[in-house]
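Morning run. Coffee first, then this:
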Amino acid sequence: MRVLLDENLPHGLRTLFEAGVEVVTVGYRGWQGTRNGDLLSKARAEFDAFVTTDRGLPHQQKLSNIEVGIVILEAPSNRIEDFAPLMAKVTAALRTLRKGRVVRVIA
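And here it is:
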């Protein structure tokens, strides 16, 4: 499984995904500042899932056209310490996530 980590998430979060999940950041790919629609279009060629904190994403995009699964993290802050307890739920979500679907993982 290949996961694209949105630029609004801490880079260190990559290390908290389970073994076998390849996580690449938006920054690493050089896609910083790319609008969500364009970002998701680029992501579909390389990634199975997109992980973000952008709660408005499902309302801004036509999900039937999106060819990656989306995981939206909802935590008290953007600190890695607040995301770490969510990682078991993220792992479970990634195992069943289908393209064009959105799963919310809430603290």
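The longest strand covers residues 69-74. Good start to the day.
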